[in-house]
Amino acid sequence: MNLRTFLAVSVLFLLGAGSVAPLAAAEPVKPAAAPAPTGLAGLLASTGLSQAQVLTGLKTGLGVAINLAATDAAKPGAFQLNAPASMAKLEGLLKAANQTGALDSFKTSLSASAASVAPQALTALKTAVGSLSAADVAALGGGGNDAATKLLRKVAEPTLRTTLMPLVAKAIAANGTAAQAKSLAAKAGPMAAMLGVPGAADLEGYVFSQLLDATFGYVAKGEAAIRANPALLKDKVAAALFKPAAK
After folding, report:
1. How far apart are CA 11 and CA 7, in angstroms?
2. For residues 168, 157, 122 and 243, what is the CA-based torsion angle, rounded to 10 degrees?
3. How much of the chain, in percent, has pLDDT values that exceed 90?
4. According to the model, what pLDDT value does residue 191 have?
5. Rounded to 5 degrees, what angle do the CA atoms 147, 152, 158 make?
6. What's the angle, vertex CA 146, arms to CA 245 and CA 41, rounded to 5?
7. How far apart are CA 226 and CA 49, in angstroms?
8. Per-residue CA distances from 101 to 24, 77, 79, 184, 197 (Å)
9. Which of 60, 88, 215, 237 is most enclosed, with most CB atoms within 10 A?
10. Contact call for residues 241 and 46 (beta carbons, < 8 A)
11. How far is C-alpha 76 from the geometric centre of its chain's CA atoms?
12. Distance (Å, whole) CA 122 – CA 145
């Protein structure tokens, strides 16, 4: 054995070439998983329903949610309105002048105006549910436990404004709410004139918006209830649609 061969053998021995395990075969690269469908496609995939069934289930579920909302809205004190934010400084003057009784009477009048229109608002909502179309269903995918309520408000609010504003105006006139606002300004003293007093049109817009917020709040509460307890629906298609929203 010549010197060159001896050195080569020695190096291999020192490196432990005889005990080196063969390299493991490289694992094949797995293709990335396809993203889960979202929106309407995701809704159809997660429920196993057709688009027509989703529309039917949506109408059924919202009908039950509105009935639950009607029960809440009929309870005493269901609509408790504060004075408009624009009257905050006027409220301060009234309290300083020990006129909180008159202020409370004004708030009661606002609340009574909203409560008197609430039944018609719920009836109008039921009509709006009946007019929902397959095109509206496309906007239902995703969302939380109030997804159907949000969809209904988006679709129905323009019609509700047309239907309910005359009723709100009539209620405010019947309750003398606008006249009470002027009376509050007089009780607050000379500085009240500088603050501005909401007119009838301002009060009508305020009561309408508060009525809508409270009414849809009760509908959202009803929707959350049927998602938590699908047995309330008594309908398999609606129960498949109104599952608790994923957290």
Report:
1. 6
2. -150
3. 47
4. 67
5. 140
6. 55
7. 18
8. 87, 18, 19, 10, 18
9. 215
10. no
11. 24
12. 20
- DSSP labels, 155-192: HHHHHHHHHHHHHHHHHHHHHTHHHHHHHHHHHH-TTH
Instruction: Return d(Cα 226, Cα 243) in angstroms, integer.
Output: 8
Q: What is the largest CA-CA distance in the chain?
A: 122
Q: What is the DSSP string of 191-212?
A: THHHH----HHHHHHHHHHHHH
The two three-digit tokens of residue 204, written as one number: 């009508």
Distance of alpha carbon 125 from alpha carbon 118, whole angstroms: 11
Place of tokens 């549910």: 129
The amino acid at 58: L
Say how far apart CA 159 and CA 28 lie, in whole Å: 59
**pLDDT tens by residue, 71-119:** 999 999 999 999 888 887 778 877 887 878 888 999 999 999 999 999 9
pTM: 0.79
Q: Closest by alpha carbon to 140, among 232, 49, 231, 247?
A: 49
Q: For residue 100, what are its two tokens?
A: 């909180």
What would the mean pLDDT of 139-144 be, rounded to a whole number?
70
